[in-house]
Design brief:
By secondary structure, this protein is mostly beta strands. It has one domain (4-122): M1 Pyruvate Kinase, Domain 3 (Beta Barrel), CATH 2.40.33.40. Helices cover 11% and strands 38% of the residues. The chain has helices at residues 17-22, 76-83, and strands at 4-13, 25-30, 42-46, 59-62, 65-72, 86-89, 102-106, 117-121. Strands 1-3-2-6-7-5-4-8 form an eight-stranded mixed β-barrel. It is globular, with a radius of gyration of 13 Å. The N and C termini lie close together (8 Å). This is PTS glucitol/sorbitol transporter subunit IIA.
Length: 123
């Protein structure tokens, strides 16, 4: 595996985040985050800002689970850099229209455990 260009540690999973993840949507937020978003989010602590631009084909690792990015919204890089924020959709298909701050990925989506590493890797 190539070296990650973005690394973070999962701190906690909001009490409503698991339901969203089961529906194919993962909301990531770096600390600090607005309190009203805590229950919907997977909160993480980034090591640093991304060293590269996010692009389709990159791998998102949540612990030992790998997702492959298939589409990247035009504001996803800015949101990740400034807020540690990224919304990952595994469903529906991005042809329906990807939100500017979101990414679409393929692969298994499950709630990560606190302490797990989050990594973005150029494939």
């Amino acid at each position: 595996m190539n070296a990650p260009y973005y690394q973070s540690t999962i701190l906690r999973v909001g009490n409503e985040a698991a339901d969203l993840i089961d529906g194919g949507v993962l909301i990531l937020f770096g600390e600090p985050l607005p309190g009203d978003l805590e229950s919907l989010s997977v909160v993480h602590k980034p090591v640093d800002t991304p060293a590269q631009e996010i692009r389709p084909g990159d791998e998102l690792w949540l612990g030992e689970t790998r997702l492959t990015l298939t589409a990247v919204g035009e504001r996803a890089q800015e949101n990740l850099t400034t807020l540690g924020h990224m919304v990952v959709y595994v469903a529906p298909d991005p042809v329906a229209g990807l939100l500017p701050g979101a990414v679409h990925a393929e692969g298994p989506l499950a709630a990560p455990e606190p302490g797990a590493e989050l990594r973005l890797v150029r494939a």
